[in-house]
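In response to the reviewer comment on reproducibility (Comment 2.3), we provide here a single inverse folding case reported in full, input and output, so that an independent group could reproduce the run without further information from us. The structure tokens appear first.
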């Protein structure tokens, strides 16, 4: 049974072939240690390829002798593949002018025949037809990998040379529209992040409820009343920004009760045996569940350690409700004087904790440092209004963000749809004057045979040369 018999029908003048049949060479990269000093050519590694591009200025160098270097030098039109690791099967087409560079051993390079449009094959390596074959051909369980033999047997729908060019042009045209749309989505998402921060900034400067405060002026008590009920100390600090009328600066310790003494430290091994029904809270939020619980109610949790204290890629403060268990990586607080948890939660997530955190390799927010965090305390009714306004605006932001995510996913599906249509021969019209792909393949095979015969003859002659 031929390859054509096993695979789907193609347009006239197309043919099924394999990567091995249209390539001049498929081989592994050079094994060497990467160094930062320019001691030789650049050494392209899997990790240097990000989002289908390479920042050549950041690619390290390697030591390699002249003879070996010639075997691994990259050239425009080469395609390299990740042959192991999380990105196994991912490909990169070398384009344009590049610095002198070789490729590392965890990559496989394909040098295609000159009778093949490199972008045509590069686009195929992003299609569902390709990835289906890669997933079927992956070896290994713990660390999936693809070798050169598997890669050479990947089947490709092969079009006439001129049609390959037309397909490449059309795909690039459609992808450029998609890329513009995705870029617009990214800008909207970035604006949403800035808007979220602006909401929090205005909220705790009193600007979010400025109109509400004006219309309710005679019905709200100043924040000092809260402090009078829960503390003998007035914590106003003169070096802090001015607040709206009726607001006051205080410290976190004066308006909360701390429950850190009830937390239970536990090793990773022991935690693994405690999985059960109640949420488990660590420094990064809900990450597990346990059979027993320490807390039951409404609490404010603030991460105690971890890089997120400074990076803030996710919220550092969050509300825990109901039965749950907390280890010693999150502070546990309850507000006093009726202060809503959400008010403090939003405020802690809004501010930088850099001046309260110790350590850089393993940042830590101690209880003592956390207690000193200044809090702009609004009148109680206004606190609830602020929390309500933040929640309302955030819900709108979240809805828009979900729509943006759906549109981004749709663009990915549309990209795959374009590739599917392209490699079914349906994206551009066929030209009856194009040379059939079968003839093209025969020419590639003929040139490969002639090249091999020439090499064999040279080897044979070398036996008689002393």
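Designed residues, in position order:
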């Amino acid at each position: 049974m031929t390859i054509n018999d096993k695979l789907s029908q193609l347009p006239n003048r197309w043919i099924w072939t394999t990567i091995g049949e249209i390539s001049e060479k498929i081989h592994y990269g050079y094994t060497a240690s990467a160094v930062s000093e320019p001691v030789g050519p650049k050494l392209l590694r899997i990790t240097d390829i990000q989002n289908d591009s390479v920042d050549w200025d950041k690619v390290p160098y390697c030591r390699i002798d002249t003879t070996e270097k010639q075997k691994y030098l990259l050239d425009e039109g080469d395609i390299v593949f990740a042959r192991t690791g999380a990105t196994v099967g991912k490909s990169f087409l070398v384009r344009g002018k590049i610095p002198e560079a070789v490729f590392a051993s965890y990559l496989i390079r394909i040098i295609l025949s000159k009778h093949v449009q490199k972008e045509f094959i590069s686009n195929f390596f992003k299609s569902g037809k390709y990835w289906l074959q890669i997933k079927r051909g992956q070896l290994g369980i713990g660390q999936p990998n693809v070798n050169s033999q598997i890669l050479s047997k990947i089947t490709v729908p092969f079009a006439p040379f001129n049609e390959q060019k037309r397909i490449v042009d059309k795909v690039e045209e459609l992808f450029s529209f998609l890329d513009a749309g995705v870029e617009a989505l990214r800008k909207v998402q970035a604006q949403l992040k800035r808007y979220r921060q602006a909401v929090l900034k205005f909220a705790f400067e009193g600007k979010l409820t400025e109109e509400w405060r004006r219309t309710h002026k005679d019905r709200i008590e100043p924040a000092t009343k809260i402090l009078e009920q829960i503390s003998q100390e007035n914590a106003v600090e003169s070096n802090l920004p001015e607040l709206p009328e009726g607001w006051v600066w205080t410290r976190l310790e004066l308006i909360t009760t701390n429950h850190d003494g009830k937390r239970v430290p536990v090793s990773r091994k022991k935690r693994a045996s405690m999985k059960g029904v109640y949420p488990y809270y660590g420094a990064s939020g809900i990450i597990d569940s346990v059979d027993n619980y320490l807390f039951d109610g409404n609490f404010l949790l603030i991460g105690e350690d971890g890089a997120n204290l400074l990076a803030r890629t996710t919220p550092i403060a969050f509300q825990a409700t109901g039965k749950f268990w907390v280890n010693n990586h999150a502070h546990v607080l309850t507000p006093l004087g009726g202060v809503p948890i959400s008010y403090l939660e939003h405020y802690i997530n809004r501010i930088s904790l850099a001046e309260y955190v110790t350590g850089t390799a393993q940042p830590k927010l101690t209880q003592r440092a956390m207690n000193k965090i200044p809090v702009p305390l609004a009148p109680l009714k206004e606190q609830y209004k602020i929390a309500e306004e933040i929640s309302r605006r955030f819900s709108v932001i979240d809805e828009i963000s979900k729509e943006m995510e759906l549109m981004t996913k749709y663009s990915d599906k549309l990209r795959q749809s374009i590739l599917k249509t392209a490699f079914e021969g349906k994206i551009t019209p066929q030209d009856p004057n194009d040379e059939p792909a079968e003839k093209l393949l025969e020419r590639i095979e003929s040139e490969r045979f002639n090249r091999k015969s020439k090499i064999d003859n040279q080897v044979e002659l070398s036996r008689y040369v002393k």
